[in-house]
User: Fold this.
Amino acid sequence: MPTEMARKFRNALGCFTTGVCVAAARDAGGEAIGLTINSFASVSLEPPLILWSLDKGSDRMAVFEGASSFAVSVLGEADQALSQRLARKGEGLLEAGEWRAGPTGAPVLAQAIAHFDCDVFARYEGGDHVILLGHVRDFGLQEGDPPLIYFRGRYRELAPAKA
Assistant:
């Protein structure tokens, strides 16, 4: 796709408001590595499946290619700085206190408003991305915390709809 067309396509995709999540896994040395994503989606209730997609050019691609499990943590409004840090190349290392190991061993963010701890169910080619399908082994949520959301290239706050 020509550069101008790709930019317009990206801008059109940005019109879909999304929640902001962090996908995290352990690298070969056991370090907790995270990546900001907004491609998270539910797939199935039985069995419980979720998906997200990863750019094949990501500096964290090898971590997720080698992982047998991963966690997706849904971020709240207070986590914007963490989201921005983990979106940058070379900034994937999760610090002590930011995460705990879920039942699969995957890193779950301590402040997440919801989390899904998964075994890798499947990986699919998807153009310039890999689609990771996770079988949810554990999940949790914190009631009442507002989500961190993203629209047209900016973080936003959720507000009640006008009647």
Observations:
- The mean pLDDT is 94.
- The chain has three helices and twelve strands.
- The first strand starts at residue 18 and ends at 19.
- The first helix runs from residue 3 to 13.
